[in-house]
TrEMBL record:
PROSITE patterns: 4FE4S_MOW_BIS_MGD, MOLYBDOPTERIN_PROK_1
PANTHER family (UniProt xref): NADPH-FE(3+) OXIDOREDUCTASE SUBUNIT ALPHA, RESPIRATORY NITRATE REDUCTASE
Family membership: Belongs to the prokaryotic molybdopterin-containing oxidoreductase family. NasA/NapA/NarB subfamily.
Gene3D superfamilies linked: 2.40.40.20, 3.40.50.740, ADC-like domains, BFD-like [2Fe-2S]-binding domain, Dimethylsulfoxide Reductase, domain 2
Keywords: 4Fe-4S, Iron, Iron-sulfur, Metal-binding, Molybdenum, Nitrate assimilation, Oxidoreductase
InterPro entries from the UniProt entry: Asp_de-COase-like_dom_sf, BFD-like_2Fe2S-bd_dom, BFD-like_2Fe2S-bd_dom_sf, CT_Nitrate-R-NapA-like, MoPterin_dinucl-bd_dom, Mopterin_OxRdtase, Mopterin_OxRdtase_4Fe-4S_dom, MopterinOxRdtase_cofactor_BS
Catalytic activity, EC: 1.7.99.4
Protein name: Nitrate reductase
Cofactor(s) the protein needs: [4Fe-4S] cluster; Mo-bis(molybdopterin guanine dinucleotide)
Domain called 4Fe-4S Mo/W bis-MGD-type: residue spans: 2-58
Domain of life: Bacteria
GO molecular function: 4 iron, 4 sulfur cluster binding; metal ion binding; molybdopterin cofactor binding; oxidoreductase activity
GO annotation, biological process: cellular respiration; nitrate assimilation
Amino acid sequence: MSAGHCTTCPYCGVGCGVTLERRADGALAVSGDAQHPANQGRLCVKGSALGETLDLAGRLLHPQIDGRRAGWDEALEQVAQRFGQVIEQHGPQAVAFYASGQLLTEDYYVANKLMKGFIGAANIDTNSRLCMASAVVGYKRAFGGDAVPCSYQDIELADLVILTGSNTAWAHPVVYQRLVKARQQRPQMRVVVIDPRETATCDIADLHLALRPGSDAALFNGALHWLARHDGLDRRFLRRHAEGAEATLASAAQWPPERVAEFCRLPMAAVTAFFDLLSEADNWLTLYSMGINQSSSGADKCNAIINLHLAGGRIGKAGCGPFSITGQPNAMGGREVGGLANQLAAHMGFSASDTDRVRRFWQAPHIARQPGLNAVELFQAIASGQVKAVWIMGTNPAVSLPDADAVRQALKRCPLVVVSEVMAATDTAELAHIRLPALAWGEKEGSVTNSERCISRQRAFLPAPGEARADWWILSQVAQRMGHGAAFAYRHPAEIFAEHAALSGFENQGTRAFDISGLATLTPAQWYRMAPVQWPVNAQHPAGCRRLFADGRFFHADGKARLLPIAPQLPKNAPSAAYPLVLNTGRIRDQWHTMTRTGKAARLMRHLSEPFCEIHPQDAAPLGIDHRCLVRLDTPHGWMLARAQINPGQQRGSLFAPMHWNGQFTAQGRVDSLIPPVVDPDSGQPESKHAPVRVSRWRTAWQAEIFLRAEAPAPAGIYWSRVTQEGATHYIMAGASPVDDWRRWLLRHFPADELTLQTAQLAQHGFHAIGWLQGRVALAFYVGRGAPELERSSILQAFEQPPAPGAPRLALLAGRGAADRPAAGATICSCFGVGEKRIIAAIAEGCHSAAALGERLQCGTNCGSCLPELKKLIQQHASRRVA
Ligand SMILES: Nc1nc2c(c(=O)[nH]1)N[C@H]1C(S)=C(S)[C@@H](COP(=O)(O)OP(=O)(O)OC[C@H]3O[C@@H](n4cnc5c(=O)[nH]c(N)nc54)[C@H](O)[C@@H]3O)O[C@H]1N2
Ligand SMILES: Nc1nc2c(c(=O)[nH]1)N[C@H]1C(S)=C(S)[C@@H](COP(=O)(O)OP(=O)(O)OC[C@H]3O[C@@H](n4cnc5c(=O)[nH]c(N)nc54)[C@H](O)[C@@H]3O)O[C@H]1N2
Ligand code: SF4
Ligand SMILES: [Mo]
């Protein structure tokens, strides 16, 4: 590897450039690429920790058939033959692919081409259905093409930034940092956050609108009506460049501020304060993501937002626009290749002319002529037996799809499940008949497109491990074995990219937004070096294009945009007497999705290390739910266990639980097993944010933690959650039935036979044990009536350096550190491992700003992701001291 190797981060849709350098000690140093337009040198905590997720532990390194190791030839042959057999017997509609916004564009293109052009069904859908489908419908309806108008630079140029349904500080941290910096430089800038709960993103908000879950469309309708009444419309733009304004304004007129306030359950003053900000600002930008898209009326919400921008003429100009920020590194690339079942390829659909055009370009023998099954329908079709073979690549649907227990059951019944994965054990891979080892980030070559249409290269800097192969290679090999050799004879991803680029320009003539024909003639060497560029890249824009629609021309046949009258709707499933609360779900700062990669980094597990459920104090009290007790959540679809977090920033009547935990990390914590498979009728996107739910205290007889040097599975029949640690297996556990003899229990469930146990029997059935082997600590176990109060860092330290006999050993047995080591508490700053207790102590000693804390403890001085939390701690603890 050369010094200063550049690639793109594999996590979120910000799409940061990453530089890797081999340090003198051989380790890889990861830093932000100063030249990359998305991040200009910044990285968030997940990006900074990339180096810690590159080891091969847990990787799938060889093909497997029915659990046994197989060679590639046999595995590929089996996939091709068995798919072929199903197609022969039941037709092409009986097979399906389920892909991912984490595949590279080149991989994605090949998967789509194989299914839609050669197998002849459109049954390829992707996890982007759960993520971007509503945004796509919104853009297509308004602009005639799936085109994101904005650039990140607009964030810096806006006078008013509206963040709705987006916890940017945690989910798009580098975008958030750019906003924070812009705000510092231009203090006149205003930020409005619209989110039912108070999030870290609210740290920067001038106004936080904690609206009733699902009610956004009414707010944006009301804003449109307000602008109409206060001379805030760009009537000239509407006349020249848009259709549908009259009907849309007439329908918005039903939303005076009083009605908006009532519908959204917001104070009237807050509603008008927001509208006034809109009236006063020269330019405004709306960033939106899952709080908008993941709704049974998500597409309509997107159009309510876009209506406002069109009517105000706040589009195609600096600092303006409706900006859907994409989640995955290649969500946008998937949209470009046509990864969704209702798209064909290169922004074409299933009209007769589009299918014919793509057929000719691909020389496809069996072009699909109808949209295929979307994600939710697809797994229902597997359950009903209609789909008999599925190939899942780069996604973990047994965890991330709604009604996830039903998804699991469907996969168990499916005659053929093929999974391409980088990890050996995932909830989905466990259900596969054939497992194909894919190359991971750092090993694979290709390209991705971020939220601002910027195409960047992911480059390999590590050798391919074991027998892992690139996804495009695996797909092409299967295609060849299915008899489509000529169309899939790719030798290099650059050839695939060139074909994809050529298709985007094929008979385009300005009719399709996605046009990168300017990149169709790149040689492999030029493709290898390709610098980040924003599409379109064509004769008109040879160096790419920062902002779309500057000329007021849209992609509908008449060149005009469309405003759509929107009738606001609340979530499809309303709370009831049996399920009185609303379950909101989403992301945490330091984990990525189903944790298959971020779950490997101990550092990323210290911020929040267990599935949790946030609840308002007034909802918790009558249910007898205390802070940090365990709770059980129930819906008609499933149940989960999580640690309660009482949080006054949570809206009353609404709970929040993270989407990340899965069967590998906890006993019963897959939140999607609770989510009903209710979707938006226009986009097919599931309503992942608003499930009616019941919560109750889970009565525990005991709670425990164990640290082991050896690897060991968690006991069955109890609550457990695994916390990744360096050099130790660590479980948090709890049980509903009492245990009489803890020593026996310990020996029965964990490999402790050979250890010398030093134990302490405590009051109220408490029991602590340290297991020694050859002078080293091999086990530490703590159980009590409630959750044991432990200093985990001190316990882990004892695994490295056994404590001396006497007081230090007794301290370890008590779960504490030696007296001279202050307790750290939960990690707030993951970059420098700074714990909550140390931060609170420093605040007590007079550090009353994030800068002062940074100077004293280093916290918040690297990626800055923890700054909102530092400020919150200062607020809580500095004021408490004064008061
Ligand atoms: N750390 C981290 N970052 C990630 C990811 C990750 O797994 N971890 N995943 C990436 C992916 S794929 C995606 S899609 C993005 C998602 O990024 P975000 O959309 O920012 O993330 P979420 O936490 O899913 O949801 C955002 C917010 O929507 C709010 N919300 C819920 N209901 C409503 C509502 O009715 N109205 C409004 N206005 N808000 C509501 C929630 O309270 C939540 O705070 O993050 C990307 N970045
Ligand atoms: N309740 C609820 N559910 C949600 C959401 C929510 O907010 N709430 N959000 C939804 C959203 S927006 C999204 S995007 C989804 C995400 O959900 P998933 O896509 O299921 O989540 P990941 O964990 O990212 O799954 C990616 C899988 O691909 C593997 N992988 C990584 N790299 C490669 C590679 O190069 N090749 C191959 N073949 N495999 C690879 C990883 O190990 C992992 O198992 O979850 C959705 N589900
Ligand atoms: S913001 Fe963080 S996770 Fe997202 S691309 Fe940048 S470094 Fe990666
Ligand atoms: Mo996503």
